[in-house]
Structure formats: structure tokens, C-alpha cells
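Quality-control log, excerpt.
Job 1 of 2 completed; input and output follow.
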Amino acid sequence: MKQINISQVSTFFANGSYPIEFLFYFPYRINTSKFSRALKKISTHFWPVFGRYNKGIITGKTYSEEEYIEEILMDESFDPSVGHEIIYNKFGTMKPELAPRLFHLKILHYKNGSVLIPKMNHLVGDGYSYFYLLSVLAAVTKRGGIPFAPAIITAISKPKNHCDLHSSFHFSVSPPDVITFDGKIDVEYLELDVTETRNQAKSISEKSGLRVSTNDILSARVVKFVLENGKKKQLENFRLAIPVDVRRGVPELGQRYFGNGLIMYNVPFDPKIVAQASIEELAITIRKSFPTVNIHSYETYLKQVEGWIETGQLELLRPYDPDNECLVTNLTQMPITRLDFGSGPPTTVEPLTKGRSGAAILAQDDKFVLRLAR
């Protein structure tokens, strides 16, 4: 029986919190037969997704289509133009499901196309892993009628499920309780021009000598908005929480690492100073606080997390504190073009995971869309 220890970073999600869930609308009917065969084909290589979790260990199990795919025929058309909030209220989930399964797919067949809603427990992997899995699934589904193509694709795309950096680590304690978000969560959307934002980042980089990114600018916008609106403007201390993908900086993980290849870091801000600061100044502060990503810094971070666990500081095993922090996730680099299940990529993409004090950065045509939940 296959088994794998979860990583130190995965302990942040051992209680089933913060599932990764998106809605994808395709203006054509997905071939369910090819789709089902493709999912079974890749389940061998992506086996942790289809396994069971218990006390720090993910154990493989026999694949069963009925357990992972739910197919529903809808006697109506899907309207992708109704807006973000309406789509979320209809399809989203306010609280994470603490089900034993780590992955689930829902396919809704409408008169004018198919809606695909894959939900993955964050314990198994991060957003990169989520889209890695879906990209391979799409490639195998699309070429399911070509002899040997599925086998070749799965062999070339086989992920790296085991990581020597944390293989000796074992998490056996009870994780902290799930953070619940009682009451209605209000969501606001800010739109920023892509070209203007990129030019602003380039200008600040030239002036400061730092490599200020568009993400720094967008994160600065989030800080400014959060601390000038609502309850958080009354805080004495505030932190911006940002998950950083370390795969490029840590070759020992690599681009095929399937798991949580993250460093969770935060940037402290004084609300009084933020009130007087410009977006440019806030972006520079964020860039200066950005952690160095290499094998040494990553191992140091993993040992820090182990230290929290050994000393019983389990309250630190949370991605962020919604009362004093805001979690910003950049979703602008999603490989949407690769999610082609037969006749093109999805024309509507909506994240369905939403938590208080969480901000998602999306790309839509020539706009950056900031989705702020509070």
C-alpha cells in the first residue's frame, strides 16, 4: 500500500480548512466517458489525491469513479454573465467540508455547455498542484481517442509525490480547529488596468533599484483598501499574509513537485503609517520584506514549523488570522489555456473558496480584478 508523510507546510491544512475549489464553464458538452477514463488513468500517478488521510499520513486506495465524480443534467442554460457574487452564492460553499475524501469533481451539463467544479483538499497540494492535476487531466481527456497518447502524456507529466526534504517528518498531533466564518461575508471587487499596473511596477523598479512586481502593487492596493475601510482600520497592528511558491528557487522540489511547495510569510504594517503612505511606498515595503527563496531558507522555514509543533504552538499552524491579517492569493498565472477538454478552454473561471479577510487577485481580459472578502 502506498503511503506518504505530509510535509511541514501541509500541517497548516491538516484540519481540512481552505479547500481549493473553482468553477469552470465550457461552452460545449464535456465528453464524460473520455473524462472518466482519463481521471482513472492519471489516478495512478496522482494517487495522494485519491487516497485517505489519517494522523500525518496519506495512504493510497483503490480508485472508484463513483466516489470522485458527480454528474448532473441541468434542464436550463448557464448564464456566465450574471456576475461574480451570484455565481458564488449559487455554487460556492461557505464552510469547508471535512469529508474523508481529498478530491471531488462535479460536472453539471447545461443546455449550452458544461460546468466543471473540482474541489481539492489543500492538505494534498497548493494551487499550483491543483492546476497541474487539471492540466494533465484535460490533456489526457482531449487525446483519449488517440492510441498510446494518454499513456505517453501521463508518463511525461508524472508528478513528484515524494520529497526528501521532509520525508523524515511525521505529524501526529491534533491540528487546530477550523476557523469558522459566522454570518454573511461581504465581497467587494476592485478593477485595475493591467497595462497601467505593469507600467507602475516598472517605474517604481527603475526609481528604487528593486524588482517591484505587479503583485507587489496589487497587494499594496489590498492593504490600502483593507485599512481604510471597515473594522481593520482600528487595528494597532496589521499583517499582510502571502503564500510564496518556492519551486523555482528550490531545485530539490522542482516544477513537478505535487504538494504544498509554499512558504507562508507576512508583512507587518502600522495602520497609521499606511494611512499616510502611497501605493508606491507600500509596494516597496512589500518587496523589501519578500523572503529569499533557496534550499537553505526553505529548510530553515521547515525547521521553524517543526519547532512550533514540538513546543505545542499549534495556533501558529494557520495560514492567517482573519481578525488581524489579510491573506492575498495571486491567481493571475493560472494555466487556463491548458484546461481544454475537447473544444477549447473555459470561458468563465470563478474561485469558489471564500473566507473573511481573504483577497484573491484575478486576471480578466485587460483588467486585474481584486476580490476582497470581509
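Job 2 of 2 completed; input and output follow.
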Amino acid sequence: MPFIPHTEEDISVMLASIGANTIEDLFDEIPPALKNGSLQVLPGLSEMEISRLMLERAETDGRYLNFIGAGAYEHHIPAAVWQITTRGEFYSSYTPYQAEASQGTLQLLYEYQTMMASLTGMDVSNASMYDGASALAEAALMAVRSHKSSRRILMPTTVHPIYRRVVRAIVKNQGIEVVEIPYCAECGHTLVESLAPYAGQDIAALVIPQPNFFGVLEPVDALTDWAHSNNALAIGVVNPMALALLTPPGEWGSTGADIAVGEGQPLGIPLSSGGPYFGFMACKQSLVRQIPGRIIGRTTDLDGRTGFVLTLQAREQHIRRSKATSNICTNQGLMVTAATIYMSLVGPEGLRRIAAQSHANTMALVEQMETLKGVKRIFSGPLFHEAAVTLPTPTDAVLKTLKNQGILAGLNLGEHYPELGNALLVCATETKIAADLEKYVEHLRRALA
């Protein structure tokens, strides 16, 4: 076992220093019955044997044709992205704490911030958050700190269900009220009229998803103006890929959203058993002192040479705990590195083409699905690259049948929105070709027969 450095002598010395005779003595509180081989742990395998086992398991699983979105999306990632990201100077570098940290790391984060500020149309971007859900929770806290007089957040039910759960979990013990706003059953987005009961009340922020969980586009201009007319901040929750086609949050309404957050996974991060992810956050210049995370600045040294420094780091390691905006520590720095390289390689026009093709594929898929009896779109509102459809039979049964055919057919919307009945959320990105759509629809036809 070459990677365990402790010799028998080392172990004896350590045990003696804590008054134990054997390592087993450290676990004497565990009942003998539980240490009697009941776990049936197999003998250790060599690296080669483990590699072969994992390869065999992967081949058994096969390769699914994936039509699930719901916050994590399958996009093509150029091979160069992770070839560069996994180079030692990026792969092994740790989150910077000191202003004199690696100039290469700081420059990369500066470039990332610049790209995200441009993509969202905001003044400032941080680097970065854990994921999109926790970024939204931090934005809610940020809005309450900024507003001072209100501890109420308006949250449309069209926001990702998991995001809503995370926000509640983080703010519930801080005296912050989260009020859910219903969606229009016909169009699938939030109506400005539904906010009328809260007009004139003390509201810290209105959350505005774009696109929303159903894939439908929200009336962001009207919602943003409503928030500002009621002295509330507008928090945009956005898909960064969609921003290649849609108006950025910084340009919503008359004066733009105040904070923009979202999940950065579409920007070069693979789908890998539920992670990893990273959240992004951007805001107006007036809120920069409230933003959590780190902000990298560009400057010059005494000799006039360009350099990069940690300009703002508003967490308790650096300032008084009571003054910290967040306790966020190690963020998803490696994912930010991959996203920066991805955006650099793909470029603005590449992002636009990917987004446009994703939209076209989803529209083509839905059009073909609606040729099947009993299948139709639930909402009439315009969409990006996801759509909610209703089925004539139980959704779970359909999903199971198609999975047996190697197709991940979508997400059962009824689990989060039972009022929708047999509802399915489908997504088709630029990775799908015409044959994939035809295969999906054909197997769906058989499943519904």
C-alpha cells in the first residue's frame, strides 16, 4: 500500500501518545455484532482490477439518449476545454485567499468575471458560488441587506422547485419570508396582475426566472418595472446559454435587473452523476459591497506592469464575522476555469449558434410529439429549449418504458406540480440530430399504444 506513509513504528508511537494499545481500541464503542463481517466488504482490488470493473459497469449501463434538462443540460464540450482545465497549473491550484496569489489564477478569474458581466449585462460579477440554487439564496440575503426595511421575497412558483427549497432552507431561520406567486395555467409564466395584492407593500425583492422551470419565457420587462415601482430589487435567475439569444438581465425593463444569478453548468461542465456545478452572480455597481464571494481587479504595479489582485473578499475570514456578507469558502474554482476556457473557445457567435440550434431542436421535437394522440404542449407561452407536454397515460410508466429502450425521455413534472397531471418536461439541445428526435417520437408512440 505505497500511498499510506505510516510505518508500523509510526502507528505504535501515535497510539501510545493517546493511550491506546491497538487501532481497534479506537472503535470499542461499536457493538461486536456490527464488526462481525456483516458489511461483507470484498477484499481490496488493484488499480488495474478497479479500472476494469468500472469499465465493465459503464458498458453495462450503456449510453442513453438524453432528453432531460430541468437545470442540468447536455451540451457539446470541445475536447480542448478539459485538456486545458486539467493541466497542473489549473487543476491543482486552490481558491486564492491572498492578494498576492497566483497571477495566472487571478487573471483567469478576472477574464471569467468580464465574460459573465458581459453575458448578463451587469456591472460586476463575482467568482463564484457553489451552484445556481445557493446563488439565488445568497441573492435573497443580499437583497434583504440592501433593502434594510423589508425581509420579504416574492418567489414565483415557476422558479426551479429545488432552487425554491434551497432558498427556504437557507433563509427560514433568519426571519425572511418567502411568498410564492402562482403562474398562469394557460401561458405558463407569471402574470404581472398576480402581483397586485403586494403593490405598495414593503418587499425586498422579486425573483424573475428566465426562462422559467417550464422552459417558458417570462415577461421580464414588466416584472422588473413592477419590482422597481414598488421599491423592490429585481433578481434574475437565468440560463447563461439562453442569454446568447435573449435580452440580458442588465437590460430588463426601464433600468435593468439589480442582481443576476444562475447555474453555470451549461458552460462546459459535463453531466456527471449530479455534479459538479457552479453558481454565478452579477449585480449593479451600487450593490457591489453586498455581493458575496470574491472580486478580482486589474491594476498596475510600481513599475507600470499589469497585475491582478483580490479587490473585494467579503467573507468572515477577511473581516469581522458580523460584517461578512457570506461564509462561502472554497467555491467551484475549477468549474469556473472550465467555463472560462469554454466561453473563450466558443465565443459569442458560437454561443448564439448553440442556443439557436437548441431552440430549433426542441421546437422540432415538440412538433413531432404533438402528432401523437393525446400529446400536446401544456403552455402557450414562448419557450427556449425546454417544453412541458401532457401525456394520455401515467408519466412514470412512459419514462420507464423508454428508459428500457435507452432513452431518458424527460422529467416527470407531476412530482413537483401535481396539478399538471401526466406532465413531462422535455429538452433537446444542440447535441441532438434529426434521427434522435425521430427515434424518441417513435418509441414514445409505441409506449402510448
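Post-run check on job 2. Residues 333-369 form the longest helix (37 residues).
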